[in-house]
Design brief:
single chain, about 180 residues, alpha+beta, Double Stranded RNA Binding Domain, 4 domains, two-stranded antiparallel sheet, 7 helices, about 40% helix, about 15% strand, flat
Length: about 180
């Protein structure tokens, strides 16, 4: 058990105690509530404060004839973009987005981005981790690809064929002599 020497609060981990001292006892509050200007040491404190004190507060849309209200400024800002037709998020492929979340999701699967997630069984590549996991969790097994060398030897992976071609393929050795 780790106990704060300033206020007596106890923690199971030394890192949690250190963080507590740094945030509560040694630093000035630096995060401000946008609704009442109260200052907080951490994002968690500010979020808890907002939920407890301002839970019923909604931000109304400033446009005439629009009666929508939103729980936070981000949602309001994205809604206003729908009125103004502003699309502040642009991918290198040219696609534009109103919402940051839609832009980030698009970036993970954009055809101009490299596919980073690969199935080790069938070498199929995916742009997003969730797509690979869906593939791996599929009840049907992977269709393993068979790659046949000119000498007749079969491989399930391109890299294994490449090693074979460079090191032990008889046909390759005959053509280089």
């Amino acid at each position: 058990m780790y106990i704060c020497q300033y206020c007596g609060k106890s923690y199971n981990y030394a890192t949690h105690k250190s963080r507590h001292i740094r945030l509560v006892h040694r630093s000035l509050p630096r995060l401000e509530c946008s609704l009442c200007n109260e200052m907080f040491h951490s994002r968690e404190e500010r979020t808890e404060h907002t939920a407890l004190v301002h839970s019923g507060y909604l931000r109304p849309c400033p446009y005439e004839n629009c009666n929508k209200s939103f729980k936070n400024n981000v949602m309001l800002r994205e809604h206003i973009c729908r009125h103004t037709d502003e699309r502040p998020y642009t991918c290198q492929c040219g696609s534009t987005f109103i919402c940051d979340s839609n832009y980030r999701r698009h970036k993970r699967s954009c055809v101009r981005m490299p596919a980073l997630f690969e199935c080790k069984k069938c070498e199929r590549r995916f742009h997003r981790r969730d797509a690979l996991l869906a593939h791996l969790n599929n009840k049907r097994p992977c269709k393993t690809r068979t790659i046949v060398c000119e000498c007749g030897k079969k491989f399930s992976r391109k890299d294994a064929l490449g090693v074979h071609m460079r090191t032990s393929c008889k046909l390759n050795k005959e053509t280089t002599i």
